Amino acid sequence: MNNLEQTLSIIKPDAVERNLDTEIKEIFKKKGFLIKKEKKIQIEKIEAEKFYKVHETKPFYNDLCAYLSSGPIVAMVLEKENAVLDNRELMGATDPKDAVEGTIRKKYGISIDKNSVHGSDSLENAKIEIDFFFKD
Ligand code: UDP
Ligand code: MG
């Protein structure tokens, strides 16, 4: 059955700053993800606040938004069958110290806040997040 999906991935400032974006993109490609769209940008804090609105009541919200807007990021639309869940699996657990071997966060993540990548957590949110970065 064809279950082609698109999801939003972000290479976060800690990874872009360490020039890991090319390497991380290669991992996605090797795992069968097509990078349909991508852009390297730096967003304003107010935009990060919109993007992470679902977390607005969390204690880490302010730091998270400050962080995402602290430097360049690479936003990508990834496409493959089961892209949303497969990307979550490839990313690994939110806290790199809980992430399993072979995941991006295990390999590159520094801490729970500097965990190198973002990925949409549902098909519904993927559509919203893709629109957020790539609505023409
Ligand atoms: N985060 C944090 N402290 C926490 C939980 C999350 O700094 O205690 C950050 C972390 O960078 C994470 C982001 O907030 O990637 C969004 O949290 P979420 O629970 O959605 O994790 P994700 O979906 O990114 O795995
Ligand atoms: Mg999330």
What is the alpha-carbon Rg in Å?
A: 14 Å
**Ligands, ions, cofactors:** uridine-5'-diphosphate, magnesium ion
- CATH topology label: Alpha-Beta Plaits
Shape, principal axes of CA atoms? globular
Q: Tell me the name of the CATH homologous superfamily.
A: Nucleoside diphosphate kinase-like domain
Helix content: 40-55%
Largest sheet: 4 strands, antiparallel
| Strand tally | 4
Describe the structure.
This protein is α+β, with helices and mostly antiparallel strands. The chain has one domain: Nucleoside diphosphate kinase-like domain (Alpha-Beta Plaits, 2-Layer Sandwich). Helices cover 41% and strands 21% of the residues. It has helices at 13-17, 21-30, 45-51, 61-68, 83-91, 104-108, 123-134; strands at residues 4-11, 34-41, 73-81, 117-119. It has a four-stranded antiparallel beta sheet with strand order 2-3-1-4, with helices on both faces. Helix 3 crosses helix 4. The N and C termini lie far apart (31 Å). The model has no long low-confidence stretch (mean pLDDT 97). Uridine-5'-diphosphate binds next to loops.
